[in-house]
Structure to design on (342 residues):
């Protein structure tokens, strides 16, 4: 039962992380900037690099946070620390509900204008898989103010799993977080236009906001119900 | 006294108008000079993104540029946002996807 709760927390954190839109938006931007300037083969390489970069950094981040927790605590979070984590997750839910998307019929995010411009500039200049990879990593880093709590919760739950499955679970976590990017790439490969995908994103903007917000709340409730209240007695 | 009042009212109106123009310019971006070549290049860029045939895309871009140029010539000043708004509206007649992606090229993230 204990492991089941941890697995559920890891999956929920990964799903919430995959619902955050900076990665998907940047990939779409990369397609837009690259297809207009370069041949399709280069675009394919750049976007493949982007997804690989996002995947690798997700792996590294969650592993690093696991190490940091172990270094500081020598064990997963204690009963006194978990309420703080649950509280931050709830605060994250409130911020996602209220601040994540800017208003208007677009998918503009909370990020400052200079950052959006920088992503656009880099996306326009990228012409190799390595540059795509760097942009993918930057997108993951740019999302950190929202995703760090999810990574911390996933890392803590990963530490509770049996050692034999930890690596598999880390890879699974990173794979789930980049799944929307892989799906988007497959959709574009199978002939969907950027306009269709962007229209869909704009149309479902509120859904994303609510979905990710609910995931944050669910994670906090899981933590409180199973990890805090469940272990009090 | 009456003349003084009238002058004051006229001054206040002029100030309000100036502030409204400044506010509009802040909201809508900087005053720009219409560049036909830039508009055609931007439309061609987005047409390439969508994989449109370059020949037909060029015809559409030229048509739209003509219409936007006519519109711009009638205005005292225009902003970048005005050009995007009008050009995407004109583009919609020819290609809705192209118009959409052109209009939203700066609002993806």
């Amino acid at each position: 039962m204990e492991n089941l709760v941890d697995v559920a927390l890891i999956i929920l954190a990964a799903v919430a992380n995959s619902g955050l839109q900076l990665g998907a938006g940047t990939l779409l931007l990369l397609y837009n900037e690259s297809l207009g300037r370069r041949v399709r083969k280069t675009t394919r390489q750049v976007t493949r690099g982007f997804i690989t970069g996002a995947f690798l950094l997700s792996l590294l981040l969650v592993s690093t946070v696991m190490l940091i927790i172990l270094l500081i605590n020598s064990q997963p979070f204690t009963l006194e620390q978990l309420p703080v984590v649950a509280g931050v997750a709830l605060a994250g839910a409130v911020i996602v509900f209220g601040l994540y998307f800017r208003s208007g019929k677009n998918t503009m995010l909370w990020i400052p204008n200079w950052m959006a411009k920088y992503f656009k500039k880099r996306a326009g200049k990228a012409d190799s898989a390595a540059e795509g990879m760097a942009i993918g990593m930057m997108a993951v880093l740019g999302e950190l103010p929202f995703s760090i709590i999810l990574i911390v919760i996933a890392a803590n739950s990963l530490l509770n799993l049996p050692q034999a499955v930890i690596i598999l679970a880390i890879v699974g976590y990173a794979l789930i977080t980049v799944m929307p990017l892989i799906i988007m790439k497959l959709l574009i490969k199978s002939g969907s236009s950027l306009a269709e995908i962007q229209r869909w994103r704009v149309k479902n903007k509120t859904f994303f906001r609510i979905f990710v917000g609910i995931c944050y709340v669910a994670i906090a409730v899981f933590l409180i119900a199973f990890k805090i209240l469940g272990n009090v007695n | 006294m009456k003349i003084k009042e009238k002058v004051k009212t006229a001054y206040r109106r002029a100030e309000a108008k100036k502030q409204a123009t400044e506010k509009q310019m802040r909201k809508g971006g900087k005053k720009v000079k219409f560049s036909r070549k830039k508009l055609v290049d931007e439309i061609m860029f987005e047409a390439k993104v969508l994989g449109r045939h370059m020949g037909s895309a060029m015809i559409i871009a030229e048509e739209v540029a003509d219409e936007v140029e006519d519109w711009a010539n009638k205005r005292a000043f225009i902003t970048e946002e005005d050009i995007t708004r009008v050009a995407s509206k004109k583009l919609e007649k020819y290609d809705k996807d192209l118009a959409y992606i052109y209009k939203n090229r700066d609002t993806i993230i």
